[in-house]
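Subject: Interface between my chains keeps coming out wrong

I've been trying for a while to get a sensible model of this assembly. When I model each chain on its own everything looks fine, but I need the whole thing in one frame so I can look at the contacts. Pasting all components below, labels as-is. Any help appreciated, I'm running out of ideas.
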Amino acid sequence: MNPITDDIILHAEKVQKVYPGTVALKDVDFNIYRGKVNALVGENGAGKSTLMKILAGVEQVTSGKLILNGKEIAPKSPREAEALGIGIIYQELNLFPNLNVSENIFVAHEMTVGGSLVNHREQERQTAELMKRLEQPIKSRTLVSNLRIGQQQIVEIAKSLARNTQILIMDEPTSALSNTEVEVLFRVIRELKTQGVSIVYISHKLEELLQIGDYITVLRDGQLIATAPMPEINLRWIVENMVGRGSATAYTPAAHEIRDDALRVENLTLPHPGKAQGYLLDHVSFSLRAGEILGIYGLMGAGRTELFETLMGLYPDATGDVLLYGESLKGKSIRERIQSGMMLIPEDRQREGLVQTLSVAHNMLLASLRNHLFSRVVLSGRKEKNSVERHIEELSIKVSNRNNPIGSLSGGNQQKVVVAKALLTSPKVLLMDEPTRGIDVGAKEEIFTIMVQLAQRGLGVLFVSTELKEVLAMADRILVMSKGRITAEIPRAEATEEALVAASAIGHELVKAGV
Amino acid sequence: MEMENIQSTAATPAKTAESNRAPIQAILLQLRAFIALLILFGFFAIYSDSFMQTNNLIILTKQVAINAILGIGMTYVILTGGIDLSVGSIVGLCGIVAGGLINEGLVLSVFDVVIYFNIWIVMGLTIICGMLIGMFNGILVTRFSVAPFIATLGTLYIARGLALLRNSGATFPNLVGDSELGNTGFPKLGAGELLGLPYSIWIMAALAIIGTFIAMKTPFGRQIYAIGGNQRAARLSGVRVKQVTLMAYVISGFCAAIVGLIITSQLVSAHPATGESFELNAIAAVVLGGTSLSGGRGTIGGTIIGAFVIGVLSNGMIIEGVSSFWQTVIKGVVIILAVMIDQFQQRLQKRNV
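Reply #2:
Try treating it as a single job with all components included. I did that and got this:
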């Protein structure tokens, strides 16, 4: 590989992580260079978070070694990793909004007087010192709930520094930040580098990596694909390594006829909740035709999920109009929208798609109980059984008994239950939010096949994905979203990875700060 | 496709090996309340001469009926993930309302008239009163997002206070009505019998059957379970979470009103303090019956068994002359044990999945 002069602080050697049924990491070598920003990229499921969790002591390796400063380590808990100087900042910040800044920084590591009383004065003094080091005007006694997200992130960083972190892992640190906040963060990161802190930086925003990263490592399907110093590579290199060459044609959707407009969205706008300015959805307009598979690509926080939830009627304060076959859905409740023919397959299967306490059959029927009545208020066991068994067969859901708890199914089969639930409402337009998230390759293909079959039946299918390959393979047309706006509309024939990546970064351009 | 097949065949042997072992354990755990009931029943049947006498068993079941009926309504509320602390007070208030309507009638001072209703209308009005209080709870919980514990705790005080206010804390005695006013017959509800069993037992049985039917075979029941299991998923499936949750509290109020009528009729007098701490017994019955306080899991059948466990335990201990102080302690121990076993079962279930 490249002649490397920089000092390696941590070296992961042939790291392997096996979960029951899947290999999450296969013989991955990974170097963290001292005082550098080590970028880690890969699509969802590539193994980034597993690697990160291993470094942070949340998970342990199945085989392989971690060598920190020449000594082998095996942190068994986040606390042990912390003691070794490895800290992590998750995408969802782990702060206590009800405590103030210094209390958060020293939580579970309180400084004490005589071993039992918290030494607030000393904590606050050290907090002030840390903030000075980070050059941030954040006061020790401010409640964290009163800070902006960007400032909260700074508090997380300070928390890590207070514990003498040598290696700081940051997972998607900019996903919720405004451009100015990103700039501040980058300044802090550069500051940390000069102080010898090594950063592991995980992000989907590739342009950002080019700016802040010193080294880059690409993972795909649990394997190390490439690693290089940042100056030697470009955006194209990253995308190609992430996605893999030529693999974009792995699924070829069967022909389906595209018909008339099914859904028209006009100037859909959703303001930020609370006092924040700006929009979660910024005058979004598009149309979806019957029999069409329309893909939406965008990074975390681009407004994809908000778009779907607004279409379903979750946000009554959204403005603009949604027309389903000419019928306005303005002011309609979720239930009414489902009856009109719109149905959502939510992103988070566990939290939004399924009721864990119910059986497979009862989950499947939940949205269409009124179609399974025996009389006005009594359910028909026979109708229920017929519907459930038909869909178990049609979607080839692997379940021995429809009354089994939903949790006994694999992720892919659970997802198919969610799909079946949606189909039972006889939708005209189906909104699928990351329909293949967290399911294995075989099940993914089955979901794709189902999507095409639905399009063939004349449904309009609108789906969101963060995986370039998936969007490119499945969609007849692609909308790219960024910062709540639609930044590009690309027909299938013209869609390329670069075009999607470029459009998804619109609005994220950084003011060129002095490097 | 092929990969999926390989995976599932690989997974099958392990699964079946485990599920062969699991059922006996799982079934025993699932039926734990029923088994506990059988053991208690057997124990007292052997050790006490008077326990198995028909007379005693009827008295026991009559006591159980009160708690079980409250428990049926409570089950709905707890299935949604809520709780209803106000049922005891609703029992008291409804009793007073019924007593007042019988003895004093409805006084319309504006028109200077007093209306005495037929006993059926009295009961109907009382039930509506209970349902309205339940609706008040439901509105607080769903429209104003007051935590169920707090909303119904507030109602507990309000309803009790109103019951005391109605007759300045005094009892409405001798609720036999007056044939001239056409409102006689109220005591029959508490004293009457059908096929040798008091009405209250029949009412419990009827409500248990109807309650189970509603829970199992109607969209409303299905939605109650869904809301308790995952409110967000239910909402996204088009369940009208607020309306359905509100109905659960109305049902609980309905059940409390029925109990209020039964007790008032049994005593032939309405006392404003009736029903104090009944809510706790009802919750205990629900929990003993295997319903999870976090919602989504449980059955009305379980609650009935739970009510019987409490009933048999207290009745048996009274007959055996166990000090009432110890009775209270033992009841507490049983409730804690029940929940501990419940947690154990859930963990076991998760492991098997």
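Reply #3:
Confirming on my end. The radius of gyration of chain A is 25 Å.
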